[in-house]
Amino acid sequence: MTASELTIVRGKKTVAQKILGFFANSFVNILLVIVAVFWLIPSVGLFITSLRTGADSAASGWWTVFTAPAQLTLENYAELLQNPTIMGSFWNTIVIAVPTTVAVVIIGSLAAYAFAWIDFPVRDWLLIAIIVLLAVPLQVAFIPLARLFGELGIFGTVFGVILFHTAFGLPFAIFLLRNFFTQIPAELLEAARIDGATDWRIFRQVILPLGGPAIASLAIFQFLWTWNDMLVALIFTNSQSQPLTVAIQSQLRQFGANIDILSSGAFLSMIVPLIVFFAFQRYFVQALLAGAQK
């Protein structure tokens, strides 16, 4: 047996060894398990409630499904797909969240590269202004932007909400990506310029590949913020352009006993951000590790 094969054999652990290794740091691991369980209980309860009829939910708690699994049904989701208000709001949420995320990532990454590696007049003062904008709360812009959007004829439209989220997402995007881009070795950019590469080519072939984890992390944050937003959408949308969060809130206010439809709609609103997060989790972890190493 070669040394490499011996290392592989020694590296394999049995189930018993894994269990013993888990309890080696028993206090930390048990604490993490308890936190994870408490964090998952509301999500599991919501999911199970979305699979029960309204009568079952009114008669007993969701945990009774473990002793009576016959309560589970897909009728709630079948009715949800036929609900024009919920499904229309679901597509409105996608139409708002996806373009906003794409716009913030593209504009933010281009601006971050300029602030990091292009010397132009008043660059530092503009960067200070962007940092100051991070401290500006959303609420102070509601009235002036509502009046401006009304004059432009985009108040109550999806386009107006996209503009609002893009404008308030750019300061954080520029600040985050600029700090990441400045940690890229300057020798790489100098070598590219010596080879005759333009700033646009450097951005595409050097900055984007190296800054991919940070850009993916920004995309995750921006998508989650926009998807879960209700305050901005509640003010700047109407019944035709409202996202899923506003639709669920209005359904809860009008049909508070409709728990079967509300639970399935709420779980639908929750599962999409989870899918996006886990799809890009690898890049998110890479960005955290890169920041820790640098």
List keywords for this structure.
single chain, 16 helices, disordered N terminus, MetI-like fold, mainly alpha
How would you characterize the overall build of this protein?
77% of the residues lie in helices and 0% in strands. The protein folds into two domains: 3-73, no CATH class; 78-293, MetI-like fold (Orthogonal Bundle), CATH 1.10.3720.10. The chain has 294 residues and is mostly helical.
Q: How do you describe this structure in short?
A:
This protein has 294 residues and is an all-alpha fold.
The biggest beta sheet is recorded as: none
Average pLDDT figure:
81
| Oligomeric state | single chain
Radius of gyration, in Å, reads: 25 Å
**Total strand count, please?**
0
Number of domains: 2
Question: How far is the N terminus from the C terminus?
Answer: 40 Å
**What's the CATH topology name of the largest domain?**
MetI-like fold
Class of secondary structure makeup: mainly alpha
Low-confidence segments, ≥5 residues, pLDDT <50?
3-9
Shape: flat
Q: With helices defined by DSSP (H or I, 4 residues minimum), what is the helix count?
A: 16
Percent strand = under 5%
Q: CATH homologous superfamily of the largest domain?
A: MetI-like
Helix content: over 70%
What is the name of the CATH class of the largest domain?
Answer: Mainly Alpha
In N-to-C order, the SSE pattern is: HHHHHHHHHHHHHHHH
Secondary-structure arrangement, i.e. CATH architecture of the largest domain: Orthogonal Bundle
